Amino acid sequence: MDLKDLLKKKKRSTKKQTAKNVAIGAGIGTAVGVAAGVLLAPQSGKETREDLVKTTKETLETVKEGLNVAKEKIEELVKKEKTFICGEDKEEEAEEVE
């Protein structure tokens, strides 16, 4: 295994771990926020359930949007790294690999 392969493997591993950490953090933050909002709301049971459904849907959309942004950034980084590793004159080949 040469240096290029080792660098590629290390960067790929780091990016995967970063993506996992972002997703886990977003999920935990969302769950804590929803739980705190429901538990601290001074409303009747019916109103609380309605708010819970509404908040859950909004939160799900927010998380989806955040994950899409993270995915786009990761894809952009991967493309840049492929270009860097393969060399600028081989940029088209790196895009074909995707």
TrEMBL record:
Please name one Pfam family that this protein belongs to. YtxH
Q: Where does the record place a coiled coil?
A: none
Highest taxon listed in the record's lineage: Bacteria
**Transmembrane ranges?**
21-41
**Keywords tagged on the record:** Membrane, Transmembrane, Transmembrane helix
**What name does this protein carry?**
Ribosome recycling factor
Please name the source species.
Ruminiclostridium cellobioparum subsp. termitidis CT1112
